[in-house]
Design brief:
single chain, alpha/beta, about 30% helix
């Protein structure tokens, strides 16, 4: 059975340098499409991305909505580009307040995470889901890659749970070895609550360490992928105790690597 898979990615190559996450997101998208699945992939339009080189262009019919984050209006801009060698289209979530800066997640002046990374992650998650609604496209699987996508599952399970677009969706979370650059803003949970999310689990984000962010997102996941050998032992222990279906780590060079992902999606249906 073919799935309709929404990929919410922290990074995708060739738009950003190759990492475990960016490379897997690039290859997984193509591999699942080649296996007959219908795909939509999203990532942030970080200011370091060369729009001319990668031929990004704005999708006017999807842009223009305002999202309110912490009582402030932020315009949602949607851009799109194609990876020619893969015949894959990538959607980009953009906003001048959050993504115009030339660095991605780490402030080059302080060598620490940007102070508003929590709001940027909230905006990214909301932006993806609102755009999918505008597309009137109903995914069967939403697969989140990287900590920057960690807010999407709570919206799917709490804010959009009754929306016909997302009502029957299964949420998959991939865990990598990279962690958040420092701790996120301790008011992150309050900002998510102000979006209409009523959940006692938000108190975990009063101390938004990477481990607590993982603990938080696990509550809303239907399945977990161990996507790196470098996932911390503490996070691995949390996953094992959660009782969630797990796709264990395997090298991308292993035979049947992408077929195992396809089968994992099938098992969740």
């Amino acid at each position: 059975m073919a799935n309709k898979i929404l990929y919410i990615c922290q990074e995708i190559t060739p738009y950003l340098p190759e990492t475990e996450c960016s490379t897997l997101c690039r290859n997984l998208t193509q591999a699942m499409q080649e296996r007959g699945n219908e795909i939509r992939s999203f990532m942030p339009r970080y200011g370091s991305i060369n729009e001319r080189r990668h031929q990004l262009h704005e999708v006017i019919r999807l842009s223009g909505m305002n999202l309110i984050i912490d009582d402030n209006d932020h315009q949602l801009i949607i851009k799109v580009a194609s990876i020619p060698s893969a015949r894959v289209q990538i959607y980009f979530i953009d906003n001048d307040d959050y993504f115009a800066r030339k660095a991605n997640l780490i402030d080059p002046d302080t060598n620490e995470g940007f102070a508003d990374n929590d709001e940027r992650a909230i905006f990214f998650a909301r932006g993806v889901l609102e755009t999918v609604r505008k597309l009137r496209w109903t995914p069967t699987i939403v697969h989140c890659h990287g900590w920057f996508s960690a807010v999407a599952p709570v919206y799917l399970k709490r804010v959009f749970a009754d929306d016909p677009i997302f009502r029957d969706v299964k949420v998959v979370v991939s865990l990598y070895g990279d962690t958040t650059p420092g701790r996120l803003d301790p008011t992150m949970g309050q900002k998510i609550a102000s979006e209409g999310v009523s959940d006692e689990n938000l108190s975990i984000l009063n101390d938004p360490s990477y481990e607590n962010l993982c603990r938080f997102v696990l509550d809303y996941a239907d399945g977990v992928v161990i996507a790196s050998e470098k996932v911390s032992p503490e996070v691995l222990e949390m996953v094992r105790k959660s009782g969630k279906p797990i796709l264990e780590y395997q090298s991308p060079e292993e035979q049947g690597f992408f077929d195992n992902y396809n089968q994992f999606y099938e098992q969740l249906q």
